[in-house]
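Work Package 3 (structural annotation) set out to generate three-dimensional models for the target panel prioritized at the project kickoff. During this period the team completed the workflow that converts sequence records into discrete structure tokens, so that structures can be stored uniformly alongside our sequence database. As a representative example, we reproduce one entry of 52 residues exactly as it appears in the project archive.
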Amino acid sequence: MNAPVLVINCGSSSIKNALIDSADHSGPEVWVIPTHEEGRIAMETHLCVENS
């Protein structure tokens, strides 16, 4: 199973306007590859939110 990768387009002037997971841009990218522990925490958080 492959870990998810979050790609943020850093070509915008602020992070709130950055494009997440977009391939149609010309600016630089930051690839965020979560560790196993971060993935486990994200999955637990997602399950807690879904079940609340």
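The radius of gyration is 14 Å.
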